[in-house]
Design goal:
Helices cover 63% and strands 0% of the residues. The chain is an all-alpha fold and 183 residues long.
Length: 183
């Protein structure tokens, strides 16, 4: 863990009590997961990185360079860590669904719980910019579609998800492959 993160940049540089609370919360959660991942690495004889990657070093530098007690720092803190936790959450889902190893599956499950909790605590600061598509690339994808989406792999026009949900709730049937497969 980077020295700056052991002390929590949100604790030292923010004047916002919600950001400070998020900083403490992230430190506690990461301490738990760090201890578990080190134990798991030893158990499975897997070497683990001991330094921050280039992206993490960049975020730390950005937070370090922001003025103490400023809204700029709070915004950088909340948005960079929110985006990072979102990326980690997606990665954990891939790990969890891609292995039969119960040690890894259980650890990934716990990590997903902690990471989701961190995402929610960062959102509770009120500083997360959901329109920042650079920090949160899924913001553009997750925006409400202008028109109902159709099933992407179907060569013929298919029902929309709301139509299927209504149809399935009436029939208790399984989802049709194509709209012509059901009445």
């Amino acid at each position: 863990m980077e020295p700056e993160l052991k002390h929590g940049p949100g604790l030292d540089k923010s004047a916002n009590p919600l950001v400070k609370e998020a900083g403490w919360h992230l430190i506690d959660g990461h301490a738990e997961l760090d201890a578990k991942v080190l134990e798991l690495g030893r158990t499975l004889n897997v070497p683990l990185p001991s330094e921050a990657n280039a992206d993490q070093r960049g975020w730390i530098a950005e937070m370090t360079n922001a003025p103490a007690g400023s809204a700029e720092f709070d915004r950088i803190f909340a948005n960079r860590l929110h985006a990072a936790h979102g990326g980690v959450y997606k990665f954990l889902a891939v790990v969890r669904t891609g292995t039969r190893n119960t040690l890894i599956r259980d650890f990934a499950k716990r990590c997903m719980e902690v990471v989701l909790d961190h995402i929610q605590v960062l959102e509770a600061t009120g500083m997360v910019d959901f329109n920042d598509t650079e920090a949160i690339p899924l913001a553009a994808v997750a925006a409400a579609p202008a028109s109902p989406r159709r099933f992407p792999l179907c060569p013929r026009p298919c029902r929309t998800f709301p139509e299927l949900r209504t149809s399935l709730s009436r029939t208790r049937a399984t989802a049709p492959m194509h709209c012509s497969d059901s009445s």
